């Protein structure tokens, strides 16, 4: 008996369609049970026959594929998350916008939470990769790109960081945004939240003192990092050009002058750094941090007296600055080296012995001059090991053994914690 070839073909198509629907349906059931690996296997079998399926089956297929590759979202690889995102986008094209939106939100949450975990574990390369993937999924959320760049810098992955920063620059990203703040009456803490929520909480009386605060522009910081990456890569001319272009585009951005100073510092051009920093100080003469930075540079350039003067000014405007006091003590004690060097050149003659005694007393004067700064540090920060160790050694040199022994015991207790 002759059989109609067309009928046979149609029969085979029906069998394929039935099998395909069963595998897609079974994949959905596997997902409901949390058997994501099983669902992936079933969907892989169905995918080879997907071209002949109707749109309803295709829609279900892509929704399930997205869900299978997303899984619980915990510990899911970036590769699987991106596969899931492509599947959800296909589902959206086929008409299931609700499932697609829910799935894509789950992927974003997974990426960002995983990136935060990576940051906390100091896995900055992995955090950068996930944050960038989050940005690719949500191109309007440029903050993800900004944080991806920051993590890439911390990971010293400068090529990747440079690409991200240049993308931010091309997008005109500034990071300027309004924060809506209010004080929680129960805790007394200031909290940020969406404006509508903040206003409602203030109306109910749970929060007080509402304030709208505009975050400063990050444009200068982005340019700074681009320039510093160029310097790290030995591309100094490009660093200077990048900064000059930024200054032309943002003539009122005073942070760029600080960026320029930092750039010359990194290049080793300390004189140029000092010149720019003094210009910055003239614009902001009560900023203790600026004087502190000038003190660091002056000390590195061999100007101990100038460094001390800058540190003293830093303390005038920021009396709690521990590092400034420690650095003043270090700058004072730096004078000891010359005294010791001269003592070591002396012989055994009567004149040399007299000179040695004079220098020994001069050396003690150096110790006495540094001591008050170190003692103040310990008063403000009783567990500062650097201050404890240095003060202990000075007490021994000055013959104040009882005080030195007390600090030695304290130091030992600190180091054995």
From TrEMBL:
It holds the Pfam family TPR_1. Transmembrane segments: none annotated. InterPro entries: CellSynth/LPSAsmb/PSIAsmb, TPR-like_helical_dom_sf, TPR_rpt. PROSITE patterns: TPR, TPR_REGION. SUPFAM superfamilies: TPR-like. Keywords: Repeat, TPR repeat. TPR repeats lie at residues 220-253, 288-321. The keyword Repeat applies. This is Tetratricopeptide repeat protein. The lineage of its organism: Bacteria, Pseudomonadati, Bacteroidota, Flavobacteriia, Flavobacteriales.
């Amino acid at each position: 008996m002759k059989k109609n070839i067309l009928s046979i073909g149609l029969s085979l198509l029906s069998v394929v369609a039935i099998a395909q629907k069963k595998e897609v349906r079974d994949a959905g059931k596997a997902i409901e049970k949390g058997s994501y690996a099983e669902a992936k296997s079933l969907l892989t079998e169905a995918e080879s026959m997907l071209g002949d399926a109707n749109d309803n089956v295709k829609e279900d297929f892509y929704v399930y594929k997205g869900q299978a590759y997303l899984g619980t979202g915990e510990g899911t690889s970036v590769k699987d998350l991106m596969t899931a995102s492509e599947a959800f986008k296909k589902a959206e094209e086929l008409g299931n916008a609700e499932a697609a939106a829910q799935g894509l939100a789950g992927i974003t949450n997974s990426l960002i939470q995983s990136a935060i975990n990576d940051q906390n574990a100091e896995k900055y390369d992995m955090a950068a990769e996930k944050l960038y993937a989050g940005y690719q999924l949500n191109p309007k959320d440029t903050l993800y790109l900004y944080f991806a760049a920051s993590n890439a810098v911390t990971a010293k992955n400068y090529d990747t960081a440079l690409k991200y920063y240049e993308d931010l620059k091309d997008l005109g990203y500034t990071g300027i945004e309004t924060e809506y703040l209010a004080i929680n009456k129960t805790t007394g803490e200031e909290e940020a939240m969406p404006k509508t929520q903040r206003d409602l909480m203030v109306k109910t009386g749970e929060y007080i003192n509402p304030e709208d605060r505009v975050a400063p522009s990050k444009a200068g910081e982005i340019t700074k990092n681009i320039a510093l990456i160029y310097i790290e890569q030995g591309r100094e001319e490009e660093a200077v050009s990048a900064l000059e272009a930024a200054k032309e585009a943002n003539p009122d951005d005073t942070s760029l002058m600080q960026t320029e100073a930092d750039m010359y510092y990194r290049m080793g051009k300390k004189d140029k750094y000092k010149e720019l920093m003094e210009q910055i100080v003239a614009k902001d003469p009560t900023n203790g941090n600026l004087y502190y930075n000038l003190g660091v540079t002056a000390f590195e350039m061999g100007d101990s007296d100038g460094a001390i003067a800058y540190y003293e000014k830093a303390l005038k405007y920021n009396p709690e600055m521990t590092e400034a006091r420690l650095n003043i003590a270090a700058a004072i004690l730096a004078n000891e080296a010359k005294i010791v060097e001269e003592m070591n050149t002396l012989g055994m003659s009567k004149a040399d012995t007299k000179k040695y005694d004079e220098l020994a007393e001069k050396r003690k004067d150096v110790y006495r001059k540094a001591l008050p700064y170190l003692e103040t540090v310990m008063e403000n920060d009783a567990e500062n090991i650097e201050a404890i160790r240095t003060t202990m050694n000075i007490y021994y040199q000055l013959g104040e053994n009882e005080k030195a022994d007390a600090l030695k015991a304290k130091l030992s207790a600190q180091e054995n914690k």
